[in-house]
Specification:
A: 122 residues, B: 380 residues, Aspartate Aminotransferase, domain 2, 2 domains
């Protein structure tokens, strides 16, 4: 069902955990639906210098969380905002159609974390 | 180590079963309906199989109809009864946690003008027979309630339900696919009119099952095209399948049930040592091979795949593995919260399951649950 890349990220997800002094935190999804993603970012000179995640969800939810941290790390806020769900799916070498919504959830989590960062800066 | 704990999905075909079936492929391949000796030997094997299965449930051989399995059996029982008795009434009673083969038959009948009552089930997984009595109307023609639930293994009081139905002269069907060989169902003791069985849940081959039918006049065939199986399930008989099914029934033993019960209890006890784990469905009146546990703060598909990585095969009631993206209708019917249903796994044993395998599984589940909880933002 899943690509090798998804299984690889599910088994050994990158950037797991929380950042205690995060500059932005985004939480999306809900327990009743079975997916909750929490993304933490640390920003320095407009760049995402550190990013970590905590996720409750299926293998696709965990793999998309992992890949979004890889994609966003080291990018400027503007560059990170340009990451699309297609980038996520492509990077994971495809997702089953019923699981594509997980990639959207990862994008939403990143956007929520960036919004939180911007709100805090104000 | 590879451990198969998904025996409620299907079982390994017993080597003895496979061996018993062998001659009916290249040697005794005759059509059981043919008059020559090739046909005769096939017919003899088919009727011996029928007799053996009939004996096991205390039925008469002419009350046993071979089907292609549980789904066909349920379809024939429910739609066949509805079509045969539609002039008598159009009301059917079932429960909310039936197998999809039953639920979807009922839904399809609703589209054809039948009225279906879906009974609630208790928190621990039982249909209250009194609820059946209360739901009965003048136009009720059929009650269909499963013998044992396929996800949580709770054994239903078919004796009481059967009694109520017989008092009211209503056909009572039960899907006994999961309970065959695990809970005895004597059709002379229990007032049941139609029962569905399947071979592949008891180490028999796939694509063969049987229907016990007390009175064939109350049943209309769904397919036409031959007089096989009393014209109720026409088509060239699956002789090898019937022989394999009978062999599997012949091998059923009380000792295996006892052994599975002990291993099941041990597995439940150890899994419930994990924090925030709970058993779904009653601990009593439960199939000897069924364990269904929810783990808070994590999701079932991840548990399944994490266990698969360690060689352990289980199933889950999580939405993430269903095409509809909805959690198990069985767990929701019990009143389990969706978030708990998402984190459920079913582990189902067989007579081949060894103690060492159970110990390995316990260790694997503990590891997987712990590592997924580390990733989860919840419960901290």
């Amino acid at each position: 069902m899943y690509s090798e890349k998804v299984i690889e990220h599910f088994k050994k997800p990158h950037n797991v955990g929380k950042i205690e002094d995060a500059d932005g935190v985004g939480t999306v999804g809900n327990r009743a639906c079975g997916d909750v993603m929490k993304l933490y970012i640390k920003v320095k000179d407009n760049k995402i210098v550190d990013i970590k995640f905590e996720t409750m969800g299926c293998a696709a939810a965990i793999a998309t969380s992992s890949i979004i941290t890889d994609l966003a790390k080291g990018k400027t806020i503007e560059e990170a905002m340009k990451i699309t769900k297609d980038n996520v799916v492509e990077e994971l070498e495809g997702l089953p159609p019923v699981k594509v919504h997980c990639s959207l959830l990862a994008i939403d989590a990143l956007h929520a974390a960036i919004k939180d960062f911007k709100d805090k800066k104000k | 180590m590879r451990v198969y704990l998904d025996n409620a999905a299907t079982t390994k075909t017993a080597p003895e079963v496979a061996e018993a079936m062998q001659p009916f492929f290249v040697e005794k391949y005759g059509n059981a309906s043919s008059m020559h000796s090739f046909g005769e030997e096939a017919k003899e094997a088919l009727e011996n199989a029928r007799q053996l299965i009939a004996n096991y449930v205390n039925a008469e051989p002419e009350q046993i109809i071979f089907t292609s399995g549980g789904t066909e059996g349920d379809n024939l029982a429910i739609k066949g009864t509805a079509y045969a008795l539609k002039n008598k009434g159009k009301h059917i009673i079932t429960s909310k946690f039936e197998h999809p083969a039953v639920l979807e038959c009922c839904q399809s009948l609703e589209k054809r003008g039948f009225d279906v009552t879906y009974l609630n089930v208790s928190r621990d997984g039982f249909v209250n027979p009194e609820d059946v009595r209360k739901a009965i109307r003048d136009d009720t023609i059929l009650v269909t309630v499963m013998h044992a639930n396929n996800e949580i293994g709770t054994i239903q009081d078919v004796e009481s339900i059967g009694k109520i139905c017989s008092e009211k002269d209503i056909v009572f069907h039960t899907d006994a696919v999961q309970s065959l060989g695990k809970v005895l169902l004597d059709v002379k003791e229990v007032n049941v009119d139609i029962v569905s069985f399947s071979a592949h849940k008891i180490h028999g081959p796939k694509s063969i099952g049987a229907l016990f039918v007390r009175d064939k006049k109350q049943l209309q065939p769904l397919f036409h095209g031959g007089a096989q199986e009393f014209s109720l399930c026409p088509g060239t008989e699956n002789v090898s399948g019937a022989v394999g099914f009978a062999k599997a029934v012949d091998m059923l033993s009380e000792t295996d049930v006892k052994r599975m019960t002990e291993l099941r209890d041990y597995l439940i006890e150890k899994l419930l040592e994990i924090p925030e784990a709970c058993l779904n469905g009653s601990r009593e009146n439960r199939l000897c091979n069924n364990v269904n546990v929810s783990f808070s703060h994590i999701e079932g598909e991840s548990i399944l795949l994490g266990l698969d990585d360690q060689g352990v095969a289980v199933s889950t009631g999580s939405a993430c593995t269903s095409k509809k993206l909805e959690p198990s209708h069985v767990l929701l019917a019990l009143g389990v919260k969706p978030e708990e249903a998402h984190g459920s796994i079913r582990l189902s044993l067989s007579k081949y399951t060894a103690k060492e395998e159970i110990d390995y599984v316990i260790k694997a589940v503990k590891e997987v649950v712990e590592s997924l909880r580390k990733i989860s933002p919840l419960g901290k």
